[in-house]
Amino acid sequence: VNVKVNVNKLSDEYNVTATEIEVNQNTPVTNDDLKAKVTATSKEGNVTGTDKISTVVPKSPISTANYGDQTISAVVTFKDGTTKEVIIPLKVKDVTAPTIQTPSNGQNWDLIAVEGENPNIDVTSEDNAGGSGVKSTTVTGLPDFLEYNEATKTIQFKAGITSVPSLSEGTDVEPHNVTITVVDNAGNETSTQVTITVKSMTTKYNAVPNQEKQTVSYGATPDAATSVDKTNLPEGTSYAWKTKPDTNTPGEKDGVVEVTYKDGSKDTVNVKVNVNKLSDEYNV
């Protein structure tokens, strides 16, 4: 007796579903990766039939260049050659930290008290191509008179500050170790360390004796400022005797001038003053 038997297509007997694939950016997704995430289940009896899947192939090229969620349309081929389409979720992870372009690690800025202008230090960064994007920038360790302005992306004077404040008496150099941290939307972060050094005016200027020694009469009080070379010293500098020369005897006398800058910092200058003989000044 010749008979005919209908053999069902596997694609008609089984439903296919897929679970999410997770990969890092720019990591290829292979056909084996797709197949590992696809499950076949019988329409009747809910029996697994995953072993009846031969291949799973994407309908178009898969790109993992960009961070985020996407879907892959794939064709499932059963061992009998029949096919079924499936949608496979794909999550592309950004695991690369942003790059801080400026300032560079280890960079230093010297800010001179009173004279120092607004530093306006640019803070620039970018995330990797196709990444999640920069989420936040934080700057810690700044001196009290500075702040990071997110709108302008600069380290600058706080509102109301117009010059670098003076240091406390006896302090000429005050370094501040500053950390800049940039975080992207995937939680990757990078940091760079820079230094902002506040310095007194005495570190910038060098007070020296006037090359032409001051000459005074016997018993006169010499002018402290006259004994100091003021050529390269700033306006607002004051001069006073720390050790006044003895003018009660003629000859070359030693003295010490205290130079005070506008920020209150001080220099001392050893000077010499000539005291005339009375016999040279008067005729009898």
Overview in brief:
This protein has 284 residues and is mainly beta. Helix content is 5%, strand content 45%.
What does the model show?
The protein is mainly β. The protein has three domains: 84 residues, Immunoglobulin-like (Sandwich); 105 residues, Immunoglobulin-like; 74 residues, Immunoglobulin-like (Sandwich). It is built from three helices and 21 strands. The strands form seven sheets. A four-stranded mixed sheet has the order 2-6-5-4. The chain has a four-stranded mixed sheet with strand order 8-15-14-11, with no helix packed on it. A hairpin with a 4-residue loop joins β5 and β6. The longest helix has 6 residues. It starts with 9 loop residues before the first helix and ends with a helix. The model has no long low-confidence stretch (mean pLDDT 96). This is Rib/alpha-like domain-containing protein. One of its GO terms (molecular function) is calcium ion binding. It comes from Gemella haemolysans.
Helix and strand layout, with pairings?
Blueprint: H1 10-13, E1 14-18, E2 21-24, H2 31-36, E3 38-42, E4 53-58, E5 68-78, E6 83-93, E7 99-102, E8 108-112, E9 121-122, E10 124-126, E11 134-140, E12 146-149, E13 154-157, E14 173-184, E15 189-199, E16 208-209, E17 214-216, E18 228-229, E19 238-243, E20 251-260, E21 266-275, H3 278-281
Search tags:
single chain, 284 residues, mainly beta, Immunoglobulin-like, 3 domains, four-stranded mixed beta sheet, 3 helices
